User: What shape does this take?
Amino acid sequence: MTDANLTDWAGVEPPRRETIHGRYVDLEPLDAERHSDSLFAAASADGSDERFRYLPQAPQIERADFDEWMTTASESPDPMFFAVVDRSTGAAEGRQALMRIDADNGVVEIGNILWGPSLARTRGATEALFLVADLVFASGYRRFEWKCDNDNVPSKKAATRFGFTVEGLFRQHLVINGRNRDTAWFSIIDSEWPRLRAAYVQWLDETNFDESGAQRSSLSEFMSSRAE
Assistant: This one.
């Protein structure tokens, strides 16, 4: 919906806490009892300092601290957390959230992303992003946002790879963990999603991966071909 005339716009419904099924991963509403063990293992695995570097939480390497966070996060309506569950093992290998949910204006952000070492940089991680974006736009949202610390180069690269458009920089936007954060803003809008969605579907197809799981064509290649 890109028409400037929105006199009939009545907003959308808030996202529901429901499982979203994919080919490689499922997004399950975060559940402290069901997901704690495997998600703690993913969060506290080697490299946790780097995974938590730009998150508002301290590295969750102590189980008591992690369990306290899980109880709070699993009950939160906004951010609304989902566990990213590997369909082949049933283990939660990461988590992400829909946040700053503005149903009146049809705007929502993905954030609080932590993908453990078994999930990061895999087709499961890309599908985890795809599944939530597809839900957002199928539910009638007009705008899907990605924001990150401007110093977080991997996050900015990921946003671009996933098809988000860079919109600018909010200088001195936040103070997080005692340091300034300049925030880089990215978005996908509803008119862009059909083209991007088709590229994701092509990339995620099993025929795009060889026997070792390596991609045959990149997501950016599919996106570029769809832009022509």
Q: What stands out?
A: The chain has a mean pLDDT of 95. The chain has seven helices and eight strands. Residues 123-138 form the longest helix (16 residues). The first strand starts at residue 20 and ends at 21.
